[in-house]
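In response to reviewer comment 3 from the previous cycle, which asked for concrete evidence that the modeling workflow produces usable outputs, we include below a single protein chain processed end to end. The sequence was submitted unchanged, and the resulting structure tokens are shown without manual editing.
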Amino acid sequence: MPKKAFVSELYKRVSIYDLILFGVYSVNSKKEKCTYERLVKECFILFPKSFSFSEIPNWPDARKLDRSLRTLRKKKMLNGDPKNVFVLTKLGRSLAEDTGKIFRQGRLGL
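The workflow returned the following structure tokens.
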């Protein structure tokens, strides 16, 4: 059963990079391999307004992850590529855990 999406007011102020890192963290915490397709699904389920087509909000827009994933790899927060799997580096995991704390506490004033 898929997890429900977070309230958009809670995540709309969080950077796309932090949302993606949290998506990888979420997939990995379920002991699943974080493939590109699985990451697209997870990000769309958790943060639908940030990862959907503007014209078709019920569909995930995978293009929103592409450039951000390259940036996260350059900044050494993430390893992997769309043909294999993604894993967080120590820095990426720390940032994802910080984002998770924000969501659990429901802090809106980021």
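The domain at 15-102 is CATH 1.10.10.10 (Arc Repressor Mutant, subunit A). We consider this sufficient to address the reviewer's concern, and the full set will be provided in the supplementary archive.
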